[in-house]
Each structure stands twice: as structure tokens, then as C-alpha cells.
Amino acid sequence: MKHMQSENKLKNSISSLANAMLSFVKNLVSGFFRLSKRVQLLTLAVLLLLVLGIGVRIYNYYLAQARSENFSVQLVSTINPDVGGDESVLSFPGRLDPYLNAPIYSRVNGYMRKWYKDIGSEVKSGELLGKIESPDVDQQLQQAKSDLIAAKGKEEFAFISYQRWKNLVVVDAVSKQELDQKRTEYETNKSLRQIAEANLVKAQTFSEYKNIPAPFDGFVDSNTKCNTV
């Protein structure tokens, strides 16, 4: 609005100035030829200056108007939106802690013979992780086997002797006391055989401890732990 008012004032000023100049020129022309040559030259110089001034003012006016029109139009850059795909991925740092963490230890003395699962391996419950070499446990197992064989032999011999003494006591070849002694020897060796069998089972159980199984499904995160998530 202010721009239009300034423009109207400028136009009115130029119109008034043009009318005044026109009136002045008319009066000047009517008396121009009555003036001397010197005055005529001065008059022409003044007229030229006036014309140049008016021309410069008009030029500046239209130049300012053109500039204001250019600045009034703002140029912007536009783009066409595209539908995004699934390529956008948000990555955040984090740490995964196991739900269950079970340190695994050996129940027998010895040294590691072989480790079947490396760190990061997935394992199932009961799957063999490693095996321990234990000479003491192997020796105890072998001793238990030998003791059982010897106990069975003694039991068998005592049973044969007892059966023989039973036949002899019928014909009074031996006394009943001797028969009772043979029966006691047989029952004693029978008990020793049962003890040897129990010792063998115990030795076999300890020998199984040389195998290290996974306690549950999970992943190995060190040489002594098994984790589940």
C-alpha cells in the first residue's frame, strides 16, 4: 500500500514538473527570439540540463519499479517426493546378557584331553562339550573290574565247596560244623562280590565325569561357561 502511494506521488510530481516545464517552454519560446545571442545560449543550456534531469529521474523511476517487481517474485526450488523403501535401518549399540549363565567345572581331577565346542558354538542339552583325561580315574575303574572278577571267582569256588560239603555231610564224611563253615565262606564271598559290583558301578560313574556335557540349550561364551538366551 505504501509503495502505491509513493508511486502516485512520484507520478503527480513528474506531471506537475512536466506541466511547469511546458508552460515555461511556451513562455520561453515566445520571448526567445527577442533575447540576445548570449542569453539564448544560456537558455538552451538550462533547457538541456532540465531535460537531462527529467530524463534521469524518469529512468530511475522505471528502474526502481522493475527492481521492485523482480524482488516481489521469490524463486524456490521444488523436488518430487518418492516413496521410501525398506533400506532405512536404525542401529543402536547394545549388549546381550544371557538369561542363564552356568559355569562348568570338572568333578574329577585331570587335564583337558579334547574340547569339542569353540566359543560362540550353539549346543543342545546333554551334548558333549569336552573330555578330560584322568589316569587316576582310569586306574580305579580298571581296579574295580579286576576286583569284581576276583570276587566272582572266590564266590564260585566257595559255592562249589559248600555244595560238596553238603553231599559229604549226608554220608557223615564231614561234620555239620565244617558244613556251616563252608556256608559262611560262601555267603561272605557272595557279599564281597556284591561289594565289588557296587565299586565297579561307582568307578564307572566317576569315569563318566570325564565327559563334560552341556547343562542346557545355549551358546558357549568361554571355555568354562555355557549360556542360554
Automatic annotation (TrEMBL):
Entries under InterPro entries matching the protein: MdtA-like_HH (IPR058624)
- Which keywords does the record carry? Membrane, Transmembrane, Transmembrane helix
Residues spanning the membrane: 12-33, 39-59
Q: Which residues form the Multidrug resistance protein MdtA-like alpha-helical hairpin domain?
A: 140-205
GO MF = efflux transmembrane transporter activity
Gene3D superfamilies membership: 2.40.50.100, Helix hairpin bin
Q: Signal sequence span per UniProt? A: none
GO CC term, one of those recorded: efflux pump complex
Protein name per its UniProtKB record: Multidrug efflux pump subunit AcrA (Membrane-fusion protein)
According to its UniProt entry, this protein's organism is Polynucleobacter sphagniphilus
| Source lineage | Bacteria, Pseudomonadati, Pseudomonadota, Betaproteobacteria, Burkholderiales
